[in-house]
Amino acid sequence: MKALVITEKDKPLEWKEVADLQAGPGEAIVRVHAAALNHRDVWIQRGQYAGLRYPIVVGSDGAGVVVAVGGGSSASGAWIGKAVIIDPALYWGGHAAYQDPLGFRILGLPDDGTMAEYVRVPIANLVEKPEHLSFEEAAALPLAGVTAYRALFTRAQVRTGERVLITGIGGGVALFALQYAVAAGAKVYVSSGSNEKLDRAKAIGAVGGTNYKNPDWVAALRKLAGGFDVVLDGAGGDGFSDLLDLSVPGGRVVLYGATRGNPSNIILRRIFWKQLNVLGSTMGSPEDFAAMVGFVSKHGIRPVVDSIFTPEDGEAAFRLMEEEGQFGKIVISFQQSAIFSW
Fold first, then answer.
1. Rounded CA gap, 269 and 276, in Å?
2. Is residue 341 part of a domain?
3. Within this chain, do residues 151 and 134 fall inside the same structural domain, yes or no?
4. Taking the CB of the first residue and of the last residue of the chain, which one, N or C, has fewer CB atoms within 10 A?
5. Looking at the structure, do residues 190 and 85 belong to the same domain, yes or no?
6. How many domains does the structure of the chain reveal?
7. Residue 205: is it exposed, middle or buried by C-beta count within 10 angstroms (0-12/13-18/19+)?
8. Is position 38 within any domain?
């Protein structure tokens, strides 16, 4: 079979032959129809992620058709031929509140991932693909979709009518959070460094937004909404203190990433005086993933796909992700160029 492989740090992706896969007990082989990128994949290529190993087939997001399962019960065999989405959170553990600090890992490192003609995953990480989604849309959903779902519903427990601020609109998690919050009846506001992205967010349900590159962006948001019951942020950095300031008393601030690093200064009295709840969130439990897919099906949500590449152009897809110019998910489709022989 062929796969997109990172052979060394800072080396271009290679679309090359790799060893065929065999399913062990409790495992399935999925013929990948489409896979999607996350910043994690680019960080692995750049050598900026924990637990690096090369060569590695990257990719956490994927959707396809089950072609084989390891020896086991007839119930496992019932998966063969089904169109599925892959839950990339491997071995979450027995606590819904948090992942197992020792056993948990994310598909695509250290385990070979989805950017290949076939991928091997635990049967427990398979969920049937919603019928209304194409394979490309389904592949866009897993990592970012479950991260947004857990942050918004499991952690923040957003309610109908609440004012929600989502920072960095245009990225995968932020866009899913916007779609989910709108479907749940919240009043959603967004921030971005691009006016075009703000306009596109309004077109899919945001009430309003502001460009964080403007020096008065905090005042502009306060004028728009007054304050926010829920804030979702994946950037961190020095702007995090402004998000505390924008939160209403008793508000919930959920941090799911830190692409801008650690804040150099946090005014703690904003947290305790306003009785804020500052919540950490990452990925999602199997229950979160199943609930997320059910929510997407119930509300007919379609992931926003920015662009679709062939595996031969995988390196170009990675450079687009690195430039952060996309609005929505970047997808690699294996349906046209790959020749399957299973």
1. 10
2. no
3. no
4. C
5. no
6. 2
7. middle
8. yes
- What 319-328 contacts at long range (C-beta under 8 Å, 24+ apart), as own/partner pairs, is 321/37, 321/38, 321/39, 321/41, 321/42, 322/42, 324/170, 324/171, 326/170, 327/170, 327/175, 327/196, 327/197, 327/200, 328/140, 328/170, 328/172, 328/175, 328/303, 328/304
Specify whether 27 is located in the same domain as 136.
Answer: yes
Does 217 reside within a domain?
yes
| Structural domain span for residue 206 | 146-280
pLDDT tens per residue across span 114-140: 999 999 999 999 999 999 999 999 999
Residue whose tokens read 């399913």: 23
**Residue 320 parent element (H or E):** helix 314-323
Say which CATH number the domain at 234 has: 3.40.50.720
